[in-house]
Amino acid sequence: MVKIRNLELGEFPLLLAPMEDVSDPPFRVLCKEFGADLLFTEFISSEGLIRDAIKSRKKLEFYERERPIGIQIFGGDEEAMAMSATIVDAVQPDLVDINFGCPVKKVVCKGAGAAVLKDIDLMVRLTKAVVKSTHLPVTVKTRLGWDDNSINIMEVAERLQDVGIEALSIHGRTRAQLYKGEADWTMIGKVKNNPAIRIPIFGNGDIDTPQKARLYRDRYGVDGIMIGRASIGYPWIFREIKHFFSTGQLLAEPTLHERVNAARKHLQHSIEWKGEKVGVMEMKRHYSNYFRSLEGIKQYRSRLVTESEPSVLFDILHQIESHYSSELVEIS
To answer: Which residues are recorded as binding FMN (predicted)?
Structure first.
């Protein structure tokens, strides 16, 4: 049983990665429904939290049915990180996660995210400040290092464990790689198999099929896997991996009805959570992922991303289901 303090996550948990502008509550509840064991919010600026910025505060909110859930924060100032941890503590998630891995320029330029990989002493101080400011378990998500010449994840893991983190998620790329090239899990495996490491180690990067999930689990011995981009528009990835682990058999791809139903639920949750105008607008980025590979979908997708009336959007989704269902009947 993998545990983060008293939080039991199962024998081999699957984690939903925090993804900016993607892993909001409407998306997270779908991933939870299809088997994600631990969810994380989009990352939240510590500076934004202590300034009481509306966007940052909104990211603290979650559905109770999402639990267990971690709220992820980032920043480069010890005092701001400590204060934001106290704010997070008050909303009572299941854990606090620190982002030391985001490679995006606007975050790195502020000395936060992956920028902290260049200064391990600062990383330790920031982590210690968070640990001392909350009663919740503290975890960290990071990368292998800043670039190929500064891969320092072994030292990072040991020192952060020493100041009190209770789990570590490692993305198998450096900051310099961004999201390019193949993720290198070799160092993730070495960290996991380091006798000095006592906390759970979760691997992240390039897991997009059940077969790869099992291969990397067995080869590198990690305690669980964090999945990000492969879940966008495809929350079934969690269900498929778990089925493959337990049976050795691949599940059939989601049916057309399942695709439409997931998009419908996502849209409904988005409107309920964010209001009609914002909920409709922010769903536009998801439609192409739900219906990718469907021949002739472009005509429907164009309407989905330009329409603003919810009732019309739900009707378009119904039309997609009817159109492709009738095609399948004709083919059979």
So the answer is: 72, 141, 171, 228-229
Q: Side-chain half-sphere of 295: how many Cα atoms within 13 Å?
A: 3
Q: What are the residue ranges of CATH 3.20.20.70 in the chain?
A: 3-247
pLDDT tens readout for residues 290-310: 998 888 899 999 999 999 999
> Which of these is catalytic: 15, 49, 102, 260?
102
Fold of 256-331: 1.10.1200
72 is an annotated ligand-binding site residue? yes
For the record, the structure tokens of 204 come out as 């992240």
Q: Decide: pTM greater than 0.85.
A: yes
The answer, yes or no, to whether residue 328 has pLDDT greater than 70, is: no
Output phi, psi for 70, to 5 deg: -110, 140
265 annotated to a ligand binding site: no
Architecture of domain 3-247: Alpha-Beta Barrel (3.20)
Catalytic status, residue 109? no
Q: How far apart are the C-alpha atoms of 293 and 282, rounded to whole Å?
A: 22
| Mean pLDDT (the chain, rounded) | 92
Residue 173 confidence (pLDDT) above 60 = yes
Distance between CA atoms of residues 198 and 289, nearest Å: 38
pLDDT > 90 in the chain, percent: 78
Query: Which segments of the chain belong to CATH 1.10.1200?
Result: 256-331
| Contact between residue 204 and residue 225 where contact means Cβ atoms under 8 Å apart | yes
Is 177 marked as binding a ligand? no
